[in-house]
Specification:
The chain is α/β, with parallel strands linked by helices. The chain has one domain: P-loop containing nucleotide triphosphate hydrolases (Rossmann fold, 3-Layer(aba) Sandwich), CATH 3.40.50. The chain has a five-stranded parallel beta sheet with strand order 2-3-1-4-5, with helices on both faces. The chain is globular. The two termini are 13 Å apart. Bound molecules: cytidine-5'-monophosphate. The site of cytidine-5'-monophosphate (C5P) has 14 residues, from helix 2, helix 5 and helix 9. The site of cytidine-5'-monophosphate has 14 residues, from helix 2, helix 5 and helix 9. InterPro entries: Cytidylate_kin, Cytidylate_kinase_dom, P-loop_NTPase. Pfam families: Cytidylate_kin. This is Cytidylate kinase. It comes from Rhizobium mesoamericanum STM3625.
C-alpha cells in the first residue's frame, strides 16, 4: 500500500507532541495529535453550555469535529484538558473519534498519529509503534518549565497532582486504557534530551521503512 503509519502513545507531557511533529516533518508525513480531537469535542460542549455527562450529546459533538486546523494553543487550557479526559471515557465518543482518526491514518505517503490508544486500538497494524514515557516528576517539571518559560505563573505541586490524576484516569478507564501495545518500542525520556529521543525514534523508523 502507499501509506506508512507511525503510532506514538504515552501519558500527558511525556514529549510525544514535539517528537511527533519532528518525525512528521522529517519524513514528510501528515501528523494528527489525537488529543486535540478529544479537546475540541470538549471545548465545543463547554462553549455550547452543554453537559459533559450525556454520552449521546457528546457523541453528536464528536461526529462534528473537523480534524484539520485543530490548534493546541486554543485548546491548551487546563479546564479543556480535564473535560477532554472526562468525555474520553465514553465508548460512543471514542468510537466516533477513532473512525475519523483511522480515515486520517490512511493518507499517503504516510502519517504520524499520537495519543493514548493509537498502537492498541486506532492503528493496531502500524509498522512502527512507540510508547513515549517519563516519570511523573519529570513530566510535571517539564510542564512547569514550559509555563515559566513563557513568563507564566506555575505551581509545581498543583501541576504534579494534575499529571498523576490524568494518568490515573487515562490508565484506569475500561475502554481503551493507556498502555503500551505488545509490540511497541518503549522510549523512556526521563533522562533523555529531546534530540536524543528523536535520534532513538529515527533509528527505529529507519529500520522499519
Ligand atoms: O494529549 P492530551 O492531553 O491533549 O489529551 C487530552 C485527553 O484526551 C487525555 O487526557 C485523554 O483522556 C484523552 N485522549 C484519549 N485518547 C487519545 C488522545 C487523548 O483518550 N488517543
Amino acid at each position: 500500500s502507499t501509506h506508512f503509519t507511525i503510532a506514538i502513545d504515552g501519558p500527558a507531557a511525556a514529549g510525544k507532541g514535539t517528537l511527533s511533529r519532528r518525525i512528521a516533518e522529517t519524513y514528510g508525513f501528515h501528523h494528527l495529535d489525537t488529543g486535540l480531537t478529544y479537546r475540541a469535542t470538549a471545548k465545543a460542549l463547554l462553549d455550547a453550555g452543554l453537559t459533559l455527562d450525556d454520552e449521546a450529546v457528546a457523541e453528536k459533538m464528536a461526529r462534528q469535529v473537523e480534524l484539520v486546523g485543530l490548534d493546541r494553543n486554543i485548546l491548551s487550557k487546563h479546564e479543556i484538558g480535564e473535560a477532554a479526559s472526562k468525555i474520553a471515557v465514553m465508548p460512543a465518543v471514542r468510537r466516533a473519534l477513532v473512525e475519523a482518526q483511522r480515515r486520517f491514518s490512511k493518507k499517503a505517503p504516510g502519517t504520524v498519529l499520537d495519543g493514548r490508544d493509537i498502537g492498541t486500538v486506532v492503528c493496531p497494524a502500524a509498522p512502527v509503534k512507540l510508547y513515549v514515557t517519563a516519570s511523573p516528576e519529570v513530566r510535571a517539571k517539564r510542564r512547569y518549565d514550559e509555563i515559566r518559560g513563557k513568563g507564566g505563573v506555575a505551581d509545581f505541586d498543583a501541576i504534579f497532582d494534575d499529571v498523576k490524576r490524568r494518568d490515573e484516569r487515562d490508565m484506569g478507564r475500561a475502554d481503551s486504557p493507556l498502555k503500551p501495545a505488545e509490540d511497541a518500542h518503549l522510549l523512556d525520556t526521563s533522562e533523555m534530551s529531546i534530540e536524543a529521543a528523536f535520534q532513538a525514534a529515527k533509528s527505529i523508523i529507519d529500520a522499519a521503512l
